[in-house]
Design goal:
188 residues, alpha+beta, five-stranded mixed β-sheet, 36% helix, 16% strand, globular
């Protein structure tokens, strides 16, 4: 099912995330995400869960990879003096939704279905204080994915924001590869 293809970690997606253009958190921000305080109204965006457009039949969740991603990220956080993040199912739902969306689009992005940012996706899932998101595609293992995130200064800042206490990981496989999303939060 998984094909080997050139790993993709889009610098433009990182730029969009960190500049706050898509409502993503600036990795240096502390406390509540300033862009998360009032969601941007989007035509046709509803707070229903799961979203009506979500077709889970085209992708398969990969829970073992999600668990390994969390373990490896928490190892990196410990090395940097941060407490481990704990799984929040609402963030996990938002992360899986976004990984499925990326798989459906065949590309890595921080802009979700209906133009939603990670902040809007987390809030729609019932989590009010998201702090950041990292995404990737094309890597076959959690180790490759986390290593790539850690080696990118912008992604590293999101992973190692010690103010984050919750997380959700969404890893899905599709015919063209594996899609990875990890969303972080400041606590509910």
């Amino acid at each position: 099912m998984r094909h080997h293809w050139k790993p993709i970690l889009m610098g433009t997606a990182l730029t969009l995330c960190c500049a706050g253009v898509t409502g993503g958190a600036h990795p240096d921000a502390t406390g509540p995400n300033p862009s998360a305080t009032s969601p941007v109204a989007q035509p046709g965006v509803t707070a229903e869960w799961p979203p009506a457009w979500l077709d889970a039949s085209s992708t398969e969740s990969w829970p073992e990879a999600e668990e390994e991603t969390l373990r490896l990220v928490n190892q990196e956080r410990a090395r940097s003096g941060c407490d481990p993040v704990q799984v929040d199912e609402r963030l996990a739902q938002a992360a899986r939704e976004h990984s499925r969306h990326m798989a459906g689009q065949g590309k890595v992005t921080h802009v979700g279905s209906q133009g939603r940012s990670f902040t809007q996706r987390a809030k729609a899932a019932g989590y009010d204080r998201p702090s950041g998101e990292v995404t990737a595609a094309g890597y076959d293992t959690a180790a490759e994915t986390v290593r790539t995130w850690v080696e990118s200064s912008g992604h590293r800042k999101v992973l190692l924001n010690c103010d984050s206490v919750d997380t959700g990981v969404g890893v899905v496989t599709a015919e063209d590869g594996v899609y990875w999303t990890q969303v972080f939060g400041l606590g509910s």
